[in-house]
Amino acid sequence: MGKSLVLGLDLGGTKIAAGVVDSTGKLLCAVRLPTPAAGIKRDLAALFDAAQAAVRSANVDWSKILAVGVGVPGAFDPVTETVWAPNLPGWTRVPLKRLLKESLARPVFVEGDRNVQALAESWRGVGRGKRIKNLVFLTVGTGIGAGLIIEGKVVPGTRGLAGAAGWLAVSDKWQPHFAQVGCLESQGAGPAVARFAEQALRKNPRSLIKTLADAQGGRITGEIVTQAARRGDRTARAVLEEIGGNLGRGVANIVSLLNPEVVVLGGGLAGAGELILRPLRHAVRQWGQPLGSRQVRIVRSHLGEDAGILGAARYALTRVLKNM
Prior knowledge:
The chain is an alpha/beta fold. It has helices at residues 40-58, 96-104, 113-124, 178-181, 183-188, 190-201, 208-215, 222-230, 234-258, 274-287, 290-295, 307-323, and strands at residues 5-11, 15-22, 31-34, 65-72, 75-77, 82-84, 108-112, 135-140, 144-150, 153-154, 262-266, 297-300. The protein folds into 2 domains: 5-125 and 305-323, Nucleotidyltransferase, domain 5; 135-301, ATPase, nucleotide binding domain (Nucleotidyltransferase, domain 5, 2-Layer Sandwich).
């Protein structure tokens, strides 16, 4: 039997990525287009354009594409088969599966982006060459979410909302902004890095953070804090220590509840590497179930921007072969 080909689509708030992937996990091509984020009609047209461009770039005929997998920001409700993507205007209860199936004339399988990224890690990332049945992919960027693979299966939850890790409670005092983004997201995502850094600069205005920010337009970002920390700035390192500790308390809850073999950290903040992972691991060992927190491996993702394509393709491949 020859290698099966599937198309992976990764819908994001700012970009759409598409690629043709074979059944061994080889990415034959990848194309990226900006997400219009200007309403469902234009976003769907961009998805269609990305799909067509990827198949052309791979130099294969559409008849060779077995199925299409799509990773979406937000959640895919398996009951109504609709997508809720709060970062995209108008994306509430969008029947994406049906619409793409009609336009692409192929079986379409849709899942939340964090779950397909977890699949990618178990297939071509940390799980490559191994069989990892219990894995959590924690994506930390503007927001926080977790993709869950338990006993080899993706866990979407009753209405596709499982893995909303940003809402884990890691503080004993309620703050009003927790109601908008969740406690852990408020204390551990990218915007929290900038907010904590701004607070720290009031006490240490001579920090390298300010120098770097001023040189780049004045806005403090997680990337700037990481740059300063890598250059030895104590204030920046203290900020990342605090963020890593907050994330670690959230991960400790996940580890204690699910007992995964591996937790993979992805998203923009993973770029800080050991500056985040070191305090994160320490907090997991301090707060987590003793055996589980010492057995789990906590590592950084190395799949980069191809993770969404690979994961969506893997999801489509497993679903379509299961139905054949």
